Amino acid sequence: MRTILFLLQKEFRQIFRNPSILRVILIMPVVQLLIIPLAADYEIKNINLSVVDHDHSSYSQKLTAKILSSGYFRLNDFSPSFNKSFSEFQKDNSDLILEIPSGFEKDLVRENKAGLFIAVNAINGMKAVAGSAYLSGIISDFNAEILMEWTPPVHPASVAGIQVVPSLWFNPGQTYRFFMVPGVLVILVTMVGAYLCALNIVKEKETGTIEQINVTPVKKHHFILGKLIPFWVIGVFSFSLGLFVIARFVYGIVPAGSLLLLYLFLSVYLVAVLGFGLLVSTYSATQQQAMSLSFFSMTVFILMSGLFTPVESMPVWAQWIARCNPVTYFMEVIRMIVLKGSTFPDIRHHFLIVILFGTVFNVWAILHYRKTV
Amino acid sequence: MNSRTVIRTKNLTKRFGSFVAVNHISFEVSAGEIFGFLGANGAGKTTAMRMLCGLSRPTEGEAEIAGFDVYRQQEKIKKNIGYMSQKFSLYEDLTVYENIRFFGGIYGLRPRALKEKSKALISRLGLENESNKLVRSLPLGWKQKLAFSVAVIHDPGIVFLDEPTGGVDPITRRQFWDLIYEAAGRGITVFVSTHYMDEAEYFNRLSIMVDGEIAALDSPSALKQKYHAASMDEVFFELARRAVRQSDEP
Lengths: 373, 250
Fold this sequence. Notes:
The complex is a heterodimer of chains A (373) and B (250).
Chain A: H1 2-17, H2 19-39, E1 47-53, H3 58-68, E2 73-79, H4 82-90, E3 96-100, H5 104-111, E4 117-120, H6 125-150, H7 156-159, H8 176-207, H9 209-214, H10 220-250, H11 259-283, H12 287-303, H13 316-323, H14 326-340, H15 344-368
Parallel strand pairs in A: 1-2, 1-3
Antiparallel strand pairs in A: 3-4
Chain B: E1 5-16, E2 19-30, E3 34-39, H1 45-52, E4 60-65, E5 68-69, H2 74-80, E6 81-84, H3 96-106, H4 111-124, H5 140-151, E7 158-162, H6 170-185, E8 189-194, E9 205-210, E10 213-218, H7 220-226, H8 232-240
Parallel strand pairs in B: 3-8, 3-9, 6-7, 7-8
Antiparallel strand pairs in B: 1-2, 1-4, 4-5, 9-10
């Protein structure tokens, strides 16, 4: 027991003397949480629109004005011909072309129906789909307005068919940030835990100090605990800084569920992540190796965690990878607790799996760490 | 000198793939001896020493350190030895005092003993004014003396020193040897590797390793007599000339 205290004292002294670690602990949470949720926003805005109006009528102008006032579109050009607009397309200045044929108003008034043409630049699939959906929505709104204008409703029910009114739960404003901030918090503790822990041990290998420890009677599990505990504390600290300072004061996010439950899960999760860092360190001889190994695995872990894209919409084989990724589970749990206020029975399954990860990583690391080579 | 054997090896061998770093070495060291391990770079000194310290598992052969087997009782060996590696390996970002306390602490010294020992050690090295400075800021010679003192802080039966005086100036080397003699005077067996032949005279007995094998083992005077040499330098050249290996140790 005393041995652990000596190891911990030494570790904390070294951490507080290392400005680069302090920077990671203090600045990384702030920067990540301030930048990523605001920048990485999936709400598509600023879609560049080219309008080709062959009709020049009051209805065609009305439609164009309505589209531009929606706030999603930015008028890139107003061209006399489709070909002209298409060259804007090719220069990647424009995302969407709306072509209003000549006789649009006439057809609309006389025959009660008219055609429009939309061309979509589909290089960025997300933007293309969202852009054409917005545009279609606005056009059908426009259509409904005209109908209302022309046919005064005799019976309100005769106009509308089935109306669907969604009721939004857990994130009523559909604010993307509420979805992202908890996710970024998970990435944060994962990176802080795994990187710092792996690099720290490998640094001792590089400087040779680990050998000096290996010739002492310090037990393997004491040494490893002496490494895990400080980084566990740092992980909890970084998480709290993110949750109570940035998430609350900058984004106004207050967890709906139990903080105790959240921290309980965090505690177990950190053990798993640190175990992973430990494992990386036992397989690396230099800090560079450890860095590239953890960089590679972190990229996979983060992209496959459901941070940006829901795990459910991945192909089945990718879902299997996501299920073998500890980050996925905390990603789900934190959103469940913070946004939905889920309770223990809801996340019991996640708990068990993360405990399993923690056990596997740590046991593997301990078995693979050798005092004698 | 009492004749209790504290290090005993028999055909101790270490292979890295097809490379035989240490080839069937057998020798014995008695308690209280200052035993030298000489050889050119790449002769296998460090590898042999790492096996004796329980840092490296022998490929074959037997070895017993302080009465414990190197295969099965490594942890017991570690309680009874001190080790100073070729590469300086105290914590550069801790102070002199913190390093002493840390290593004393993990060797299980009780708080009172730890306090007294730390104080005594600092005053013996004349580091009173430096005790709160980071080890990083000390000159190499002082670092080496500190590393040695830390390696024997728990009064081990045996201390292994791997080229402790490498890169150190002659005056500091002299002082370093004073520390070694002082430790030997307290009954600590000292096992030192070096490639400075002028240090050979300090040893009670020494072995000369060539290409992973022990080419000669005796007291300095007996070796000089045997090889009809005026100095240990000549003895060494006589033996080392036969070396085939060029490369550094793996």
